[in-house]
Predict the 3D structure of the following.
Amino acid sequence: MTGPQDTPELVEPLDVDGVRAVAVGTVLWAVAFIVCLLLRDQLAAADTTWWTWVCLTGALLGLPGLWYVRRRARAYASR
């Protein structure tokens, strides 16, 4: 006994190429880096200044990641 409620609807993927995900992630790491710079005295008091470097690393690694996924998206689009 199957009915319309048993039929799954076809759903398109939201972000096939990953460009938006990498871009948002890179921006969020950059914002976190700025926040860490603003709070550097509190971070130093808590001995967590390494958070600043983690955020900077995330933002900097996001840049070549963004280049890569944009290049890959163009390659997919050309096929």
About this structure: Residues 50-78 form the longest helix (29 residues).
